[in-house]
Amino acid sequence: MKWAGPIVAVGVLAAATGCAGQRGDVALGSDGPVSGLEWTACAIGPTTSGDETAAPAPTSGAKAECARLKVPLDYAKPGGDTIELALIKIPATGPGDRLGSLVFNFGGPGGSGVETLAQAAPRFKNLNTRYDLIGFDPRGVGLSAPVKCLEDARIDAVQQTESTPDTPTEVAAFEREQSALVAACQRRSGRLLPHVGTVNAARDMDRLRIALGSRKLDYFGISYGTELGAVYAHNFPRNVGRMVLDGAVDTKIDKTSLGLQQAAAFQRALTSYATDCAKDGPQLCPPSRAAGSQGAKSADQIVADVGALLDRLDEHPMRTGLGRELSQSLGMTGVATALYSRQLWPALTQGLAMAEQGDGTILLTLADAQNGRDDQGHFSNLMAANTAITCVDSAERHTAADVEKAMPKFRNASSVFGESMAWGIMQCTGWPVPGGESPAEVAAPGAPPILVLGNTGDPATPYAWAPALARELGTGVLVTLQGEGHGSYDSGDTCLRGAVDGFLLAGEVPKDGTRCG
Fold first, then answer.
1. Structural domain total, the chain
2. Reported pTM
């Protein structure tokens, strides 16, 4: 799942595809005929604002093929209007017999599976020897009938506004921004909004399975992708093949509890970073350098200083070398971004050191990467898609009074991130589409064993969610990584990767409760 700041969320860059070729066979699905796929060689590159007409652009990724899959806009009317889903395939490289297709969802909700797989395929090269790797943009995302809300310039402006309102005037301004966002989504994407939820995305995945010619769906879901995979398993348990869910989401908790647990997890991750940094001493850990001395600070002092820095940004945004200021909202996103991967900790150290000198360039660069903003000022549509999918899935609609009531718990969960994440529970306030039943049911009786991965230091999907999802599925097999960062497979841990690769490539189910790291 993505960092859940208020109003404007975070994103990844969308992608462009070029597709043509020979039409495949037509198969029959539960919701009508499913056309075969027209694969053709294509190049993938970032687009602007989910532009479905953008031309392909070269990347350094693996050789790719692209296609489009037609699905019903409204599954209650399978013979009615259709939309097209953008797909990408990285063909199996060999050696060994081809196992079929391995479908990915990398999270969000709202992340582009097309562009992400084009860039991430080398990280799955062992699996790619025997699987065709398949990425797709779920409905409402990227190049698949994208939800559109705010224009780029407006997103930039909102990100400079108050993210933790603490006066009646600021609260009123926050509520106006929320109302303006909802109105923009309704105006630009009203026809699509009722149809972009996770259940419909799961139905789309079963049509994708049929179109790929697969008897069973082999699937690798990460972060929100674990929720999508679990919903698929619940609805199509006998169509599940080898399924891996990494960075698990607990589908049974409400939005307030989710925010509280995520705030606490980001706080723990920040403390882990500070502890590691403080051990290096003041020469290698500039944030630990005491003002006016060369003495090192403790981890608790470093965490407190990060909080103080973000508090100062509330009243005094910081200059950067990018022509824009670093607001409190962007500063917090920048810090949170670096906690997604231990590999980004050095960048956080440098960014905090520069910020203490009055330069917010690195923190703003981190925030831009997380928000899907390119250097031309264009945003992906993740913010819009994230909100639209979340608010179709959930019936919760919170008010400012609800936030104020919950605020003490959020502050207790995280002195640094708590207030901002408390306001994040208003994401669906005023949304024009009634939400579905929440929490989601994901029990999957009849499904084969499903591998569920949890990282003890995960800030975005707290570890406790992994054993919870394994229990909720009923067929879940839990594998734990004792590590840092979001997700497990991408850590490179040989024990963890061995368990996953053995499961996907050879059908070897690890012992439930296996621990790595």
1. 2
2. 0.91
